[in-house]
């Protein structure tokens, strides 16, 4: 039954755009967008950016208080003599957080191309990608993007949508830190959008405004290989890892009111695939003629886009080697993406647990 739904889901997602583009043969092992069928209002292709639902601080504080009390009784069976601070969450508790995010992703499809998944993945990436291996500063430990100035850094424009979207989940599970929640949501969204398994472990502590990182730690989309290497080598990644990570641009879109760029990278922006690489290699890309920042558009339909930084991956010989491999081999991309995204989400975290203690979350049916 589940597999019939998945087959239907894939048929739906593939049939949406009537174009000559078709996802390349997909991994039979991984490419199962588990929510595509249920989330039938999710569009395979693109529309205008939705307005992110903005949250009201006081409202959330109220919900948090109520949710905290609810969770307290859920967690402790109503034994008010036990302080909720004593609560030690188990894998089952984190799975409950995962299930809640997965359920909301499936239910709340009235946004962008039909899913909050891509913007959650971007939040997890920007929270982690500030890491500097020399100084040990930045990384996913801290969730300092809650505060200005980090929340106002140009690269983080639009991520308030994701932070606000996670507030009701934080209110329901008040024991989880923001930094664990944001990264768990990133892991959940990749899995729920049909991507590989992303093992995850808790252990991040929230930090205050003093731990905000300086502007300029995240990549600038108008720049090319030297800049990309400077930024990602600083985090501790090599060329193959950089290419695998940027393959995440199979998902989501750029928004003129956020980065200034415009459009999706491919025709199924809510399904995790290796399409970003296949299109980079197979399609002809030309400079977009418009009154906006320099970006590229596909010659065939003029509706897709690539950033200058994306194009650098085929201009640079070392990067291109990996692009070619991932364009042809979806399984290799899924495996390498999983490894490198797990590494990304753990940057800068002083875990007391071991890598083998990571949880593998059960995806939704
Ligand atoms: C050179 C590296 C990168 C550059 C320059 C870059 C730049 C950008 C830009 C300009 C946007 C559009 C933002 C907007 O207007 O809403 C974007 C979106 C996105 N990026 Fe990247 N990015 C990079 C690497 C990555 C990595 C490593 C990941 C994940 C592991 C990632 C995941 C995403 C996702 C999922 C979106 C779509 C967000 C949405 O739909 O709201 N990016 N990126």
Automatic annotation (TrEMBL):
Transmembrane segments: none annotated. It is an enzyme of class 1 (oxidoreductase). Residues 176-365 form the Plant heme peroxidase family profile domain. GO terms for biological process: cellular response to oxidative stress; hydrogen peroxide catabolic process; response to reactive oxygen species. Its EC number is 1.11.1.-. It catalyses: 2 Fe(II)-[cytochrome c] + H2O2 + 2 H(+) = 2 Fe(III)-[cytochrome c] + 2 H2O. Destroys radicals which are normally produced within the cells and which are toxic to biological systems. This is Peroxidase. The lineage of its organism: Eukaryota, Fungi, Dikarya, Ascomycota, Pezizomycotina.
């Amino acid at each position: 039954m589940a597999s019939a739904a998945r087959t239907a889901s894939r048929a739906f997602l593939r049939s949406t755009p009537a174009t000559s583009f078709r996802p390349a043969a997909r991994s039979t092992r991984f490419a199962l967008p588990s929510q595509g069928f249920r989330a039938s209002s999710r569009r395979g292709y693109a529309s205008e950016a939705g307005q992110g639902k903005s949250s009201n601080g006081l409202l959330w504080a109220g919900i948090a208080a109520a949710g905290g009390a609810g969770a307290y009784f859920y967690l402790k069976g109503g034994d008010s003599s036990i302080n909720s601070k004593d609560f030690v969450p188990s894998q089952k508790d984190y799975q409950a957080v995962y299930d809640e995010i997965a359920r909301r992703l499936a239910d709340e499809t009235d946004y962008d191309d039909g899913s909050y998944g891509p913007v959650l993945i971007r939040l997890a990436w920007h929270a982690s990608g500030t890491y500097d291996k020399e100084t040990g500063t930045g990384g996913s430990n801290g969730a300092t993007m809650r505060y200005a100035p980090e929340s106002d850094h140009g690269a983080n424009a639009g991520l308030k949508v994701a932070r606000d979207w996670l507030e009701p989940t934080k209110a329901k599970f008040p024991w989880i830190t923001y930094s664990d929640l944001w990264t768990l949501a990133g892991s959940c969204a990749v899995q729920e959008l049909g991507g590989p398994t992303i093992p995850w472990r808790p252990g991040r502590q929230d930090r205050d405004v003093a731990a905000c990182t300086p502007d300029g730690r995240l990549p600038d989309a108008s720049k090319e290989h030297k800049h990309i290497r400077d930024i990602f080598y600083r985090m501790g990644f090599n060329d193959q890892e950089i290419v695998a990570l940027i393959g995440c641009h199979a998902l989501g879109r750029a928004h003129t009111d956020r980065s200034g760029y415009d459009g999706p990278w491919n025709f199924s922006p809510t399904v995790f695939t290796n399409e970003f690489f296949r299109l980079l290699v197979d399609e002809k890309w030309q400079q977009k003629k418009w009154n906006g920042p320099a970006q590229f558009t596909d010659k065939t339909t003029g509706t897709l886009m690539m950033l200058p930084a994306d194009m650098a991956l085929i201009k640079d010989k070392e990067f291109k080697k990996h692009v070619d491999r991932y364009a042809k081999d979806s399984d290799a991309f899924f495996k390498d993406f999983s490894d490198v995204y797990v590494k990304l989400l753990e940057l800068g975290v002083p875990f007391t647990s071991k890598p083998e203690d990571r949880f593998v979350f059960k995806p939704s049916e």
